Fold this sequence. Notes:
374 residues; single chain; Dihydrofolate Reductase, subunit A; Cytidine Deaminase, domain 2; elongated; 14 strands; nine-stranded mixed sheet; 29% helix
Amino acid sequence: MMRLALQLARRGRGRVEPNPLVGAVLCRGRRIVGRGWHGEFGGPHAEINALRMAGGKARGGTLYVTLEPCGHHGKTGPCTEAILAASLQRVVVAMVDPNPLVCGRGIRRLRNAGMEVCTGVCQVEAQRLNRPFVKWITTGRPYVILKWAQTIDGCVESRGKSQWISSAASRGLVHRLRGHVDAVMVGIGTVLQDDPRLTARPKKAADLRRIPRRVILDSDCRLPLTSRLARSARSVPVSVFYRRGSGRAAVLRRKRLESHGVQCLAVAPASEGGLDIRQVLQRLGGMGCTNLLVEGGPKVLGAFFQARLADEAWVFIAPHLYGDAGGRRPVEGIAPGVVAGIRSAEIEQVRRIGKDILLRLRLAAGGAKPMGLK
Length: 374
């Protein structure tokens, strides 16, 4: 029953953030009388939907829920009170809610009212399901997914020429992934070279769960006003992070970008130059970004590895050889001492996508498990 609740919870991905994914199953004996999931931000919680479906059949039943029921007033009323009013016999919880407003309080409220509560059923699966939420609520930073495509000889471009490496099937999967995250990030180098849109354009409308914010790391506000990003900033949000204390020319460029609807945010410079990535992530987390897809070039990817701020990587390996024509590795700029200190990544999934192979890696340095996407 808890595994079914976990399956239901996944239906809310891309629609409930920054809230967690939650599913619930209500049973009388071995018979399911109610099912529910948190379907959209601000909407009824999974427990409420399951109780509504069950109606009077809920009395004396058992509720299986993937996350501790809330006991406080937020955008909706406390689920604990609805559970008590339904006169259930037992509640089975997969994991405790790490949100300080909830953490343990919902369970105590139910137990203090005399209800039997069992915890820890499928806990590992539930924690994995909500890894982005857990990281965001406990650190204030989004869950970071790095993505790149490379040839089998480890190249990401041919002497600076912009061309597709991965197959159409792989690119379609990336568009689906974009449609599930809060933001997509690249560096200004990628923008100047490729003039990307960075929008989510999946084939199926159902795969567009949310419109991701486009985020550019641009120390000196060099984003061209003629770029596709700047021209579309009023319809799809664009945020440029620039270096605090930049010169007069950068200030003038910033003002022009802002007049075109681009949000410009100043952050401190990193000690080795560029931008302080950790501060960028904190700012994004403060904006409600729970999961971030980084599609930058080797320098941007290297900066995340250098700072040990990435949680997961999607690596698309295409059956091509660049040989001597290839020039760049996927990741650059990592100091030898940092490489020695990063533990090996764990291969979470190996999957064939069209002609390519997708490796999904859990990055031990980031300390988080992968986010699922079917």
